[in-house]
Amino acid sequence: MTASRQRTRRRASRRTGERGRTSGLHLFATPIGTCGLGWTVRGVDRIELPAPDEASLRAALLRHTADRDGEREFRSPPPAVRAVMRRLGRHLKGRGDDFTDVALDLGATSPFARRVYRALRRVPPGKTTTYAALARVAGQPGAARAVGRAVGANPLPLLVPCHRVIRADGKLGGFTAAGGARLKARILYAEGVILDPEQARAINHLRRDRVLRRLIDRLGPLPFAAQQPGDPYEELVSAIVYQQLGLKAAATIAGRLKALTPGPGFPTPLEMRALSVARLRRAGVSAQKAGYLKDLAARVAGGRLDFRRLPRMDDEAVIAELTQVRGIGRWSAEMFLMFQLRRPDVLPVGDLGFRYGVKEAFGMEALPEAAEITALGERWRPHRSLATAYFWAGREGAW
Q1: Cα(104)–Cα(9) distance, integer angstroms
Q2: Which residues contact 22 (CB under 8 A, 6 or more apart)?
Q3: Which of 22, 358, 80, 395 is nearest to 219 (CA)?
Q4: CA dihedral 137, 12, 151, 177 (to 10 degrees)
Q5: DSSP-assigned states of every residue in 93-149
Q6: Least confidently predicted of 33-37, 103-107, 217-221, 225-229
Q7: Can you tell me whether residue 367 is helix, strand or coil?
């Protein structure tokens, strides 16, 4: 560390303890939600990323600072700490800051962890590293797992940028904060990093639309493309079971339906065909839906619906194929296209949640009709599936 930087840290440490307030806790608003910060006379000693609610955030901050400098209280921070909070807010808006001049109190961490954190602070915004690379820089080549444990226990996320540590294969990897990998992607996005090149191209295209640009910059990359498709037959069974039911009631019926046969999932097509309507009814399936499930099972078992053919078909052909199944309408077929076949350019104009999302994002007085959404969607081609996901997420507040 240079002599000038050491002097800067000493001055920052002195300012942190101004007016006798040698330690304290405070909550502050940021673009990713309310965060918590703790400080001592030596510097910032705790950052808590957003929790499900403010009570949980306060409890976490108190719990993680309980053994430091006696009883900790929530109080108004001194100017130096307020400056750090403002800088964190600007950073998360996209105005990169390396925070290397901010005084930190790492007294409660091990010497090895401090070496890891020092190495990690040298990774600038817009860059990433891996556990193995960090181990080498910290002087412990081959200690990637130990580095992972130190990073996972990091008391100062953002200031010690553990979100910049990714897997060796270039994938995002996990994140111990309450928001998980979703929050990690959001923070990296604020620093100009989108790991998936295809997703980066799609996002850059969609940001040309000013309304979507606001949503994207608020939400960051969505895990839409990262979700792994499930078994296609099970997905359609689930679509039928969940139709026109609340989530809790549908989940209960789905569980009972799975319990009718020995396997971990829903009854296979052959098993479903063998089940009587009476048994399905006792599991909570309506008579109408029992007929739908029987029709689906017969088509799959008899080869009339061959899931191996669908990936080679265009979107409208897939919709035509799936809607031959009783109980599978266009909306269910479009969801299958988006989430099972990973089709990038689906625009489900009949989806009520999507329509509400468009209405709210564009500030419309009434729900847009299909023709209006179709016209708007022309500017989002060929990434209308991802655009749809942003309108869903913008309304729900989370993906």
Answers
A1: 9
A2: 40, 41, 69
A3: 395
A4: -150
A5: TT-----TTS-B--TTS-HHHHHHHHHHHTS-TT--EEHHHHHHHTT-TT-HHHHHH
A6: 225-229
A7: coil
Beta carbons of 390 and 352 less than 8 angstroms apart: no
Q: Is 308 helix (H, G, I), strand (E, B) or coil?
A: coil
Query: What count of other Cβ atoms lies within 10 Å of the Cβ of residue 347?
Result: 22
Q: Per this entry, what is the length of the chain?
A: 399
What kind and span of H or E run contains 271? helix 269-274
CA distance 188 to 221: 9
Residue matched to tokens 């001049």: 101
Closest C-alpha to 324, from 351, 347, 295, 345: 295
DSSP 8-state secondary structure symbol assigned to residue 379 = G
Q: At residue 233, what is the residue type? A: Y
- Tell me which of 228 and 113 has the higher pLDDT: 113
Which amino acid appears at position 110 of this protein?
S
Give the model's confidence band at 21: pLDDT under 50 very low, under 70 low, under 90 confident, else very high.
low
Percent pLDDT > 90 in the chain is 76
Q: Name all domains of the chain by residue range, CATH numbers in brackets.
A: 3-92 (3.30.160), 111-195 (1.10.10.10), 205-223+344-399 (1.10.1670.40), 232-339 (1.10.340.30)
Active-site position among 97, 105, 295, 351: 351
Instruction: For the chain, count helices (H), then strands (E).
Output: 19, 5
Q: Is 209 assigned a catalytic role? A: no
Q: Which amino acid is at 12?
A: A
| Under 8 Å between Cβ of 272 and 234 | no
- What residues pair up with 331 in beta bridges, in sequence order? none
Instruction: Report the sign of the C-alpha dihedral through residues 371, 387, 180, 38, in that order.
Output: negative
> What pLDDT is attached to residue 263?
84
43 closest CA partner among 160, 187, 193:
160
